[in-house]
Amino acid sequence: MHKRSVISAGALLLATSMTLTACGTRGGDSGGGSEGGGDSGDKVAKIGVIAPLSGDLSALGKGIENSVDLAIKQANEEGGIEGWTLEIAPEDDQANPDVGKNAASKLAGDKDVVGVVGTLNSSVAGTVAPVLDTAKIVQVSPANTGVSLTKGEDAENPSRPYANYFRTCTTDAVQGPFAARYLYEEAGIKKVATIHDKKAYGQGLVESFTEEFEKLGGEIVAAETINPDDDKYDAVVTSVKAKKPDAVYYGGEYPQAGPLSQQMKAQGLKVPLMGGDGIFSPEFIKLAGKTSNGDLATSIGAPTEKLESAQAFVDAYEGGGYSDDYEAYGAQSYDAANAIIEALKVSLKDAETAEDARQATIDAMADVTFDGATGKVAFDEFGDTTTRVLTAYEVKDGEWTDVNTEEFK
């Protein structure tokens, strides 16, 4: 298998040209986010977080929450918005669309809430975004990759469904083809079996991967699905193994991907499993075990720890006393929170209450642009990030190792 470690000129320019100012002392694990804020006479504006803070995906959810908490603490310590103190309002969606909808309704009913960072899952965003849109609360996701959230269901005639919705991550329309190109052009793999978990994220990822892989000349030898509530995948593995693929592309998340990889190898299907950012977590390696070496994943952006623009974020997070890692979406969550804060600097200036500033915050978000942890933060006419850098990772010696970073074109 041919592998390389490349950061394209475009990605290098993004990585090296961005700077971030580190601030003060960070205290506590996901506190109120208001320490070091203004005087006691300040008005309060809350930034909500909707993410899985419990359950199988809580590692990713806590990384999102903590990164938002850090951004809020820094803004308060710097006196970012005169007359206002920012607070965090986290809600656990349990990676469940119905629970997420309830969380969104709760935040919408709080007159101090003026923005929300989240969600992790595209399927949860499908129920959250309309609630927040109706309440005129800006939403910025660090992780949703479902294309329809910003461009609607008709790919040929894109139309933005929610004026309040933005994201700091790339979409399946970019990530799936990026993975296909890596497998076909860099790894030299021509025959792939696909498996997805029937959820919006996994299905969308497999569809975009398949289209690009076949366009390149690759062959999809099997297309299977699993039930995300199951933990035994013998039948699917047996079916896929009979088709003799050179790799398996999985659309879904690490709680299922890890056991699937382990069971593939145990049944003699000793080929790489590749997935999207939903499997890019140390938790995948724990679940997949020692046979996960050689497995692959793509994730949004360049490796956080290698971005010059992210070093202040990494240092501040590590010094912040958080018990959980920032995980795959920490830097994107930090940038999402800071995007809201930048918009609030405009919308709260003359507002009497946070609720009064909701629509103005949405309006201001369209013009937000700044140098963030992940590079240049800005949004296009659909609310999508203008940054299209992605990275392919491989499990080597029990750790994710970046093997290719490029700006997708």
TrEMBL record:
This protein's record includes keyword Plastid: no
Membership in a protein family: Belongs to the leucine-binding protein family.
Protein name: Amino acid/amide ABC transporter substrate-binding protein (HAAT family)
Keyword terms of this UniProt record: Amino-acid transport, Signal, Transport
Domain Leucine-binding protein as annotated: residue spans: 46-398
CDD domains per record: PBP1_ABC_LIVBP-like
Keyword Signal: yes
GO BP: any one term: amino acid transport
Any Pfam family hit: Peripla_BP_6
Organism this protein belongs to: Marihabitans asiaticum
Signal peptide range in chain numbering: 1-22
